Amino acid sequence: MTQLSPYAALVLRLAVGGVFLRHGLQKFHMGIPGVATFLHGVGIPFASVAAVYLIAVETVGAACVLLGMVTRPVAALMAVNMVVAIIAVVLPSGHFPELESLLFGGALALVALGDGPLSVGIYFKKPL
Fold first, then answer.
1. Is 97 helix (H, G, I), strand (E, B) or coil?
2. Which backbone phi and psi does 29 adopt, to 5 degrees?
3. Running DSSP on this structure, what letter comes out for residue 44?
4. Pseudo-torsion of CA 5, 8, 10, 11, nearest 10°?
5. 73, exposed or middle or buried, with CB in 10 Å at 0-12, 13-18, 19+?
6. Degrees (nearest 5) of the Cα angle 78, 23, 56?
7. Rounded CA separation 13/2 (Å)
8. What is the distance between the alpha carbons of residues 114 and 5, in angstroms, rounded to a whole number?
9. Treating both helix axes as pointing N-terminal to C-terminal, what angle do 47-56 and 6-41 enclose, rounded to 10 degrees?
10. Per-residue pLDDT of the chain (128 residues; tens, 9 = 90+)
């Protein structure tokens, strides 16, 4: 560990949360019916429920990650999103999952790192 190690979670939260928020806002503007239609087209069951889940995780969840609140559980959901995206969308299309793989790795790292000391969430934690 170095003196800069505490800042790693902040940098990763900003990168991963920022990309998820950007994609979540795109889905938000498409609306639940638009996202559900896409999900149904790629074979995701319960497409309307999945659309609500995706929009919530990629907007509200991403905002939480950016602020450093409940980072671990939201990052775990983001990692699951990326696994499903890779398996259901990217690989069947014949592409290599570059962005999705990076986001998966970043989300897993956030599961391990948590909020970090430079976060809003630190103010809600009970001292040990």
1. coil
2. -75, -25
3. -
4. 140
5. exposed
6. 55
7. 19
8. 13
9. 160
10. 678 877 899 999 999 999 999 999 999 999 999 999 999 999 999 999 999 999 999 999 999 999 999 999 999 999 999 999 999 999 999 999 999 999 999 999 999 999 998 999 888 877 76
From CA 110, how far away is CA 113, in angstroms rounded? 5
CA distances from 90 to 65, 79, 86 (A): 25, 15, 5
Contact 101, 86 (CB under 8 A): yes
- Sequence spans of domains, the chain: 7-115
Which residue has 């793989």 as its token pair? 101
Of 85, 80, 121, the residue nearest 100 (C-alpha): 85
List the structure tokens of 124.
């809600």
